[in-house]
Amino acid sequence: MIQSPLNYTGGKYKLLPQILPLFPKKIERFFDIFCGGCNVGININCEEINFIDRDKNLIYLYQTFQNLEKNSVMDWIYKIIADYGLSLVSRDGYKFYGCEGSSGLGKYNREPFNKLREDFNKCKVIDYRYYVMLYVIIVYAFNNQIRFNSEGKFNLPVGKRDFNSNMQKKLSAFIDRVQSMNCKFICQDFRDFEVEKLSEDAFVYCDPPYLITCAAYNENGGWLESDEKDLLNFLDKINSAGIKFALSNILRSKGKENKILLEWLEKNSAYQAVHLKKSYANSNYHKTDKISESDEVLILNYKI
After folding, report:
1. What does the alpha-carbon distance between residue 274 and residue 259 come to, in Å, rounded to a whole number?
2. Distance between CA 209 and CA 80 in Å, rounded?
3. Order of strands across the sheet with 244-250?
């Protein structure tokens, strides 16, 4: 299976062995509405894959990987690393930078990373190189995460890792996949999705932010009860159109219940919630969360 080149919060890579067998056996057109790291859609075999997310930086980054030759992507990555004097342990080893694997590379990379971040945030030309710069920043940022402030500036601090061999392999495989498959990357809010244009051969998968968990996307009103209700109404509309869907979500976590989701399930007896085995690596929780207190499910509007 192909793994996302991004360490995206809530990624479902390690849950794929549980999720994929629950999908319909025959899918012609797949719609990954909250595509995030693309771990699910990138591993679907069908005639057409549509990756949809409202984060324009994420979508344009993927379009860069899709449209730019892989050698050009890699050449730009290595040039940016060299130009800013960032570490490259896969070539030089930790001792070269006066660091150890356990403590990471943050101390060495802090100054060049801050300069790269500053130049990126000041950049006026938004082109392929701009998004390759974004990818390098993500790789060297804290936990390889993506975060922009209200002014549109990337604001995460330096992290402990660099463009290691594992990241290189994941990016290479991802680029090969998106350049060989029939796929589209679309910047769109799910509320603007035109359900009436779907045909019965379509399948819609949603992995939205989880309402009752703590993560970066839930900060500062990132996902509210109104969003949750809008999404569930959207899925009802899809169901009424005769289209199959699957929804990843959590019913309970750390003593909290998603009452909106539970009431929706109770009202729609045709929907079934398949409980998944816990996987902390794929959760949206901080480290303080207890796996035993979470109840992750895949909700389907069809029989399996």
Report:
1. 17
2. 33
3. 183-187, 48-53, 29-32, 202-206, 244-250, 296-300, 272-275
Taking Cα atoms as reference points, which of 108, 119, 117, 104 lies closest to residue 86? Answer: 108
Whether residue 160 contacts residue 86, with contact meaning beta carbons closer than 8 Å, is answered with: no
- Name the amino acid, one letter, at 254: K
> Looking at the DSSP assignment, which residues form a beta bridge with residue 300?
246, 272
In 10 A of CB 17, how many CB atoms?
11
Hey, which residues does 272 pair with through a beta bridge?
Answer: 300
| Cβ(17)–Cβ(24) below 8 Å | no
| Spatial contact of 245 and 203, defined as CB atoms under 8 Å apart | yes
Q: How far apart are CA 278 and CA 73, in angstroms?
A: 36
Residue 254 has a CB neighbour count (10 Å cut-off) of 14
pLDDT digit string (tens) for 8-43?
A: 878 899 999 999 999 999 999 999 999 999 999 999
Pair of tokens at residue 171: 């990016």
- Alpha-carbon distance of 147 to 168, in angstroms, equals 22
Q: What are phi and psi of 178, to 5 degrees?
A: -70, -25
Q: Read off the pTM.
A: 0.91
**Residue 224 near residue 217, CB atoms below 8 Å:** no
Cα gap 26→24, rounded to integer Å: 5
